[in-house]
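User: ok so my PI wants both of these folded by tonight, can you help

Assistant: No problem, let's get them done. Here's the first:
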Amino acid sequence: MAQDPKTAHPTPPQQPQQQSPPGETREMTPKPDHGEQSYKGSGRLAGRAAIITGADSGIGRAVAIAFAREGADVLISYLDEHDDAKETARWVEQAGRRAVVVAGDVADEAHCKSLVERAERDFGKLDILVNNAAMQRSYESIEDISAEEWDRTFRTNIYSMFYLCKAAIPRMKPGSAIVNTSSINAKSPSPHLLAYATTKGAIANFTAGLAQLVAKQGIRVNAVAPGPIWTPLIPSTMPEEAVKSFGKNTPIGRAGQPAELAPAYVLLASGEASYITGALLPVTGGRPML
């Protein structure tokens, strides 16, 4: 039975809460829905091998669960949230697929190369790359953003995509897919997320350009543009009042859940999207991508 999207998941106000970055799923109220009890696979990624960065929690965990239930083995790349990453791996393995868990910083080029090498060694191939890891911080003034933090945000959010794509593409065969995580901030930037929003615009442009560059190799490149999604990034990087009302400014009236993003990634990674490349797919709760 169809559900009213306005009431299908928790609505604001959320309980006031704060965490230290990058945040942990178990500390969140309400707990995010990653599709643990709802996502049903149908073999759309059967026999494929994927790397998902930032796969310990949030959108990355939901995508890992969905990919596994669609038949893919998954390399779970994450920074240092070990407990969250183990939980993601548990769900992947419960779906009957292989989970490889690798901690490390995707801002480092050598680590990105090692992720690709590890996937090829453990899975024998690499069919799908999901660039999802991100850093976000809120500031009231540009004067409050240090040059070091600006650089760190770019290295985590956009340099990592360049490093991973450069390492992965020579190993990918025709029919492979890259899916990047952009944001509604790519087109409608929040002034308090200046560094983050700027990288998300760069990701949209990078996606469109790379798609044209590798089309001749039979590799597709697309991006998903989430709106406000309830992940550990929110209580760990936003003021309490912003967390309390998070998602209220959408036409649907609430934050999205990670589980509501996963089908977009599955589509773009699957053969059903064989004529889609260079696209930016909005999943924004009705907020327009201007």
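One down. Here's the second:
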Amino acid sequence: MKLYYSPGACSLAPHIVALEAGIDLALDKVDLKEKKTADGRNFLEINPKGYVPVLELDGGEILTEGPAIDQYLADLKPESALVPANGTMARYQLQSLLNYITSEIHKTYSPLFAADTPEATVANRKAYLQKRYAYLDAILARQPWLMGEQFTVADAYLFTVTRWAKAVHVDLSAFTVLADFQKRVGERPAVQAALQAEGLGHHAK
């Protein structure tokens, strides 16, 4: 299988998941601005949506959207316990968390990366993130991981998007529990390996 990625983008989450599960993935770096793969192919022919992550299966099938890819990879190695079993309430709770991170955290960062976003919108989105992180910070104050005692794909996803805060000047200093979470995730060997492979070092922030 092959993962199309861009360093530090949301594709970092499935990269972490694969390493946590012991799944060997080929990596293909994508220039998201030029929409080109490392060997010069038109990335839009691979994913017309124009963004990563993309998982290319050995049979040529293409799977897009990070939370779907995360769950697919984790389901290949159920012994990794990165996702609860399909059909269980715990699995639906995991999907609820993934949806929350996607819609309330991940997509709220998006306008902050655009140079032409109006200042009022930037301020609004930063304030919105404070409210949405408060919910997750409260969960993590009760338990080490989002789902309890077990590290899951939701933790990999939250870690990935929260790494963006510094780059776009989102002040998360009020969330000390979240900061401890980021450090804890960043110290995991699989996470360090993913960061190093993407040229991002091995630090948690």
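The domain at 2-80+192-197 is CATH 3.40.30.10 (Glutaredoxin). The mean pLDDT is 96. Good luck tonight!
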